[in-house]
Amino acid sequence: MNNSVVENLDREKISNRAAVGILGSVLHSFDVNPDRFTLSKSSIHRKRRNVRKEIATEIQKKFEKRNGVLVHFDGKQLVSSNRQKREMLAVVVTGNNLTEQILNCQFLENGTGRSVAELDFECLKSWDLDTFVKGKHDTTNVNSGEMNGACVILEQLLGRKLLDLPCRHHVYELVLMTAYLVIFEANTTSPDDEVFKSFRDARDSINQGNISGLDNEQLNQEERRELIKFCDEMLQKSHIRDDYEEFLQLSLMCLDPLRRFKLKLPGAVHHARWMAKAIYGLKMFLFRDKFFFEGVTVEMLQRFALFLVRIYLKGWFQAPLTLSAPRNDHKFVNALSNYDDTQLAEATLQKFQKHLWYLTEILLPSTGMRLGESGPNPSMGGAMASSCILMHFESASINIKNYTTNLQLFIVEMLTQHRST
């Protein structure tokens, strides 16, 4: 077997036992006696393992090292070769016009922050990237803990500080999780989501011609037109995941039921992918007049759909815009502060506030960014930018002390005095 055959066997997830049968049949089709070759499950296994090592070594040799790369790491529970569930960690590097490169995927002895950090460090050392990496990227508790988190321990192993770049979509997923728990009072420890189970079981009887969107009393015309325009603009762009596009299409159908898209049948719901819950919630809302959902009321679905379309939609799709992050996050805070569902607004705002730590004394006066609709303005001075941030906090009736350090408060006080003169 050459490298090409092994690559295709792996890509199609063909087992060693099945590979023996396939290769034997191919040899027979060419009138070649299979007994002339060593065809067994163990020989196929050894050959595939050796070829994988050769491919990995070649990729590592050709990898172009550049300064300023970011290391990403995330784990997932998978079944190992001994049929036990274990944590597998994937380590990836990106940045500085670098093609995304997987460094390693390996099972951990345990899921502690130290185990994660040590594997990250070993990967960086083996790829000779320990001096090139400048930032780390993750948001889960085991990684971002202040004392025993993987990020802190990785900095200790490297002997220097790294730039924190948490995934902003993960932050907004926490907001969605909070909204879901507040509205449906659901239990997320169960492997099966009882909230969406009845809708999933009835998927074969869905009549896609009968849907009901948001009423005029729930959303005024001006806001509706603005959200429709936003969805249309986002749909013109390419999305890395199909569920992002589906979220936009369902939102448009809630805003304008005359806009029709092909509805996909309800699929699996994973607690790790909160976007699936948003998609389920919007589908159930659209068909609320046609189905009886056990344990779920129409008021719950309406409350969830309104939050998703009015508040969450823009925040989610603007989250990856790094340069606009301060402006967009302040607009999101403002939207939550003025949302008429007080219970939901307070819970989601409390969760979101925990992730505004990046608004430091360095960023506040030097952000150089307008908070209006015009977007980033590099020509704006630091003092004027900070003044804009301050005015935005004031207009949202938010206590800036919740977001700032003592040095920031001193800067804000100086800017306030400067603005009043």
What structural class do the secondary elements suggest?
alpha/beta
If helices are DSSP runs of H or I spanning 4 or more residues, what is the number of helices? Answer: 17
**What Rg is obtained from the alpha carbons, in whole angstroms?**
26 Å
> Which regions contain 5 or more consecutive residues with pLDDT less than 50?
365-388, 390-398
Average of per-residue pLDDT values = 78
Strand content: 5-15%
Beta-strand segment tally: 5
Approximately how much helix is present in the residues? 40-55%
| Sheet with most strands: strand arrangement | 3-2-1-4-5
**How far apart lie the N and C ends?**
80 Å
Form type: globular
SSE series: HHHEEEHEHHEHHHHHHHHHHH
Largest sheet geometry: 5 strands, mixed
Number of domain modules: 4
Q: What's the gist of this structure?
A:
The chain is of the alpha/beta class and 421 residues long. It has 17 helices and 5 strands.
Describe it for me?
This protein has 421 residues and is of the alpha/beta class. Helix content is 52%, strand content 9%. The chain has a five-stranded mixed β-sheet with strand order 3-2-1-4-5, with helices on one face. The longest helix has 22 residues, at 41-62.
Overview features:
421 residues, alpha/beta, 4 domains, 17 helices, globular
